[in-house]
Recover the amino acids of this structure.
């Protein structure tokens, strides 16, 4: 009954109530949005690489190496020669390796030149190996394996022919038209940047490049000419990792570096963390101001509602019940604000999904309430309840003083 | 009509006041309200004449149990207000006292039916159908169209609103009705109709009526009338007649 009364009373004051609810919704949107993006970015980044002990590449920042080799964000600044690669992996503690050569694209999707070991050893999520929806791994120079999203978005089927282009733009002027690849396999959806990737063999990639520069047309393509952007290492034991890091860093023929994915990710979180805290502070400030707005709005309404209070008193409502009514109104407004924020948030996350995945390599799941978000919502509700005690106490006092006239 | 156990005797007096003293500032030597003795028999209709500044509002708040007597006792249907806690007085008022105000009697954003239901839920244990039946009867008695039940209170005319106010006050069949200048917002024609309806319905429901007004012309509707100054011995209030 009290709820219904509070609800009707709020409807009676639609405009002010709506504006108050809107400002609450905005602040909850920011708070929950930041929190949820943070969680999703973390899971998404963390699940993108699993079971890789070391990432080795030309000397650069460890974040840069991590971002381009795993998340396809940014570009390699330098290359690793095939010789250096071979020398590093010739070591008893190295159990497997995956070369990665970047720089080409297919209608905006990154092309990765790699070896068959990629499909054998690369893992994502909770050490899940890659699996094929259709077809199989490439074995020849003119075969290509597509990530699930690439195949879906571009509408490629097994056996289709594809020409790659140099550079990573969607509209590259330099197309390797002469060398056509055909689709041999399509991977299952992984929820990682792999879905957005086109995989070809290193040999195939080199061949495509050669055919563009026509003067090299009849040269034979030895491994010595191949350069790669980075490579992943799987080691026999985790303890060997630090030893390998030192070995790579002290490698004299070329300036290389090795990073532990976990450590690099931790640095990434630290970097993002500062930004994230700033957003959270802004979110809390908006929340504080909208709760003060809520309080002001309720206090102002008390002046107009003196008659209403007298009527309620006359028909037997105690001052405490009247105070509870005011608190209920505050909670309804905050609750509605939270609901609006949740709906907006899930809608906008759904709408932004493809954009975020393509541009930032972050895979946004369908919005769901994390424990942290639930805690946040409870905190917001409690704060609004606490702040409503002020107008509620005014209502209590007025309903006692005012009496029956 | 009154829901009570059979061995409970209906008290002869609806209101019994003894040595009542009250003032907003406590321990005042000359209290604002000082009524040594006043009784109203059950079913009686009393016109209480009171000018502004006569302590009228304070007295009504005491009678309605909003304020608590500092000295003496107020008994309503044999039960002493002054010994009740605040929440008990609120509950008691919901059940046994109906109030008709000057102007604002209804929650503006609720429909008539919702306004009445609010009163019912606060006190009555009767079933919804019984309640609805009685509402329908009262609506006809008060010349209100049934369609008005679902109308928002603030959409009604002033006259209609005051008639609904009678209904609101009577719906729980309280023993005591307190009316505080209920006709001041009405024109003379509707005033007469209103007074007749109020008095008739109070008689039909066996409700005691205490009608307070500064308008002496309404006196003729009542057999019993008295000036609040005769009641209140306080020297603090103005005794202008």
């Amino acid at each position: 009954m009290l709820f219904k009364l509070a609800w009707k009373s709020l409807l009676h004051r639609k405009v002010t109530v709506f504006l108050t609810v809107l400002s609450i919704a905005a602040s909850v949107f920011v708070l929950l949005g930041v929190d949820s993006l943070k969680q999703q970015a973390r899971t998404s980044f963390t699940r993108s690489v699993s079971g890789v002990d070391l990432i080795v590449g030309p000397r650069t920042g460890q974040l840069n190496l991590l971002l381009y080799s795993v998340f396809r964000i940014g570009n390699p600044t330098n290359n690793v020669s095939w010789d250096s690669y071979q020398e590093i992996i010739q070591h008893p503690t190295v159990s497997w390796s995956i070369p990665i050569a970047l720089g080409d694209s297919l209608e905006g999707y990154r092309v990765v030149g790699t070896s068959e070991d990629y499909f054998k050893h690369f893992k994502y999520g909770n050490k899940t190996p890659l699996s094929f929806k259709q077809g199989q791994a490439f074995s020849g120079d003119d075969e290509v394996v597509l990530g699930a999203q690439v195949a879906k978005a571009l509408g490629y089927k097994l056996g289709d022919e594809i020409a790659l282009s140099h550079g990573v733009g969607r509209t590259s002027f330099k197309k390797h038209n002469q060398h056509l690849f055909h689709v041999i396999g399509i991977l299952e959806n992984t929820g990682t940047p792999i879905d957005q990737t086109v995989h070809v063999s290193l040999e195939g990639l080199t061949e495509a490049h050669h055919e563009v520069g026509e003067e090299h047309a009849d040269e034979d393509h030895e491994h010595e000419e191949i350069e790669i952007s980075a490579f992943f290492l799987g080691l026999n034991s985790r303890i060997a990792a630090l030893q390998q890091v030192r070995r790579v860093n002290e490698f004299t023929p070329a300036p290389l570096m090795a990073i532990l994915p976990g450590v690099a990710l931790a640095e990434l979180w630290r970097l993002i963390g500062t930004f994230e805290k700033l957003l959270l502070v802004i979110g809390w400030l908006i929340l504080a101001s909208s709760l003060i707005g809520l309080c002001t709005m309720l206090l102002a309404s008390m002046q107009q509602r003196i008659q209403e209070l007298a009527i309620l008193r006359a028909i037997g409502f105690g001052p405490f019940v009247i105070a509870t009514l005011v608190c209920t109104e505050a909670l309804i407004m905050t609750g509605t604000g939270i609901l609006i924020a949740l709906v907006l948030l899930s809608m906008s996350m759904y709408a932004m999904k493809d954009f975020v995945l393509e541009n930032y390599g972050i895979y946004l799941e369908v919005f769901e309430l994390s424990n942290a978000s639930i805690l946040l919502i409870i905190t917001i509700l409690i704060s609004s309840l606490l702040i409503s005690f002020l107008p509620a106490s005014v209502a209590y006092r007025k309903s006692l003083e005012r009496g029956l006239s | 009509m009154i829901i009570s156990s059979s061995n409970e005797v209906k008290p002869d007096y609806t209101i019994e006041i003894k040595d009542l003293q009250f003032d907003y500032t406590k321990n005042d030597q000359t209290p604002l309200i000082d009524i040594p003795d006043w009784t109203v028999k059950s079913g009686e209709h009393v016109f209480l004449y009171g000018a502004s500044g006569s302590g009228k509002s304070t007295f009504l708040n005491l009678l309605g149990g909003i304020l608590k007597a500092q000295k003496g006792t107020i008994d309503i249907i044999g039960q002493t207000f002054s010994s009740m806690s605040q929440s008990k007085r609120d509950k008691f008022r919901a059940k046994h006292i109906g109030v008709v105000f000057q102007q604002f009697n209804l929650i503006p954003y609720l429909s008539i039916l919702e306004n009445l239901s609010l009163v019912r839920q606060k006190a009555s244990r009767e079933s919804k159908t019984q309640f609805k039946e009685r509402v329908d009867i009262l609506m006809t008695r008060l010349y209100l169209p049934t369609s008005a039940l679902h109308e928002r209170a603030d959409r009604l005319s002033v006259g209609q609103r005051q008639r609904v106010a009678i209904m609101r006050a009577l719906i729980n069949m309280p023993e005591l009705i307190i009316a505080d200048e209920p006709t001041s917002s009405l024109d003379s024609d509707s005033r007469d109709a209103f007074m007749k309806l109020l008095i008739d319905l109070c008689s039909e429901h066996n409700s005691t009526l205490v009608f307070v007004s500064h308008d002496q012309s309404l006196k003729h509707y009542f057999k019993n009338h008295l000036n609040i100054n005769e009641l209140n011995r306080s020297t603090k209030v103005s005794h202008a007649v």
Notes: Chain B is about 35% helix and 20% strand. Confidence is low (pLDDT under 50) at residues 1-7 of chain B. Residues 188-204 of chain B form the longest helix (17 residues). Helices of chain B lie at 56-63, 86-96, 112-123, 128-141, 158-170, 188-204, 228-231.
